[in-house]
Design a protein that fits this description.
It is a single chain. The chain is mainly alpha-helical. Helices cover about 55% and strands about 10% of the residues. It has helices at about 5-15, 20-30, 30-45, 60-75, 75-85, 110-115, 115-120; strands at about 50-55, 90, 95-100. It is globular.
Length: about 130
């Protein structure tokens, strides 16, 4: 299961639209490693003039790797994180998540990061099973 959904949030979802902040709180509480990783790269981006900031450190455990994969593989989770942090997320392998400024999404740097070539160049023998 990707998220541990509190009963009141589930009831809200059964009744109609869900508040984005409530959903983001659920993500934060359910996927703490993913939350910390995205929070960190978003904060690094905010504190610099760079086009992007990224995480190159593999998760310490398979559980944490799974959290990151679940967060970034879900359109709903990923887009809510992007709205919350005001960034565009890009993802390679099992751990390399990057936060881009919205103004950089049409940049050569962004296109290079999300390209097939970028994906292939980011491979290594240690990462083939992730």
């Amino acid at each position: 299961m990707s998220l541990t959904v509190p009963p009141d949030l589930l009831q809200a979802a059964e009744s109609g639209p869900v508040d984005d902040d409530a959903f983001v709180s659920c993500v934060r509480d359910s996927l703490p490693y993913a939350w910390q990783t995205v929070s960190r790269v978003a904060a690094e981006l905010a504190s610099s003039d760079a086009e992007f900031a990224d995480n190159v450190i593999p998760p310490p455990t398979e559980d944490e790797r799974g959290q990151l994969l679940r967060a970034l593989a879900s359109d709903a989770i990923r887009s809510s994180l992007e709205r919350h942090f005001g960034v565009k997320l890009a993802f390679q392998n099992c751990h390399r998540v990057a936060a881009f400024r919205h103004s950089a999404v049409d940049s050569e740097t962004y296109r290079r990061f999300i390209s097939v070539r970028g994906q292939l160049l980011n491979q290594s023998p240690e990462l083939r099973n992730c």
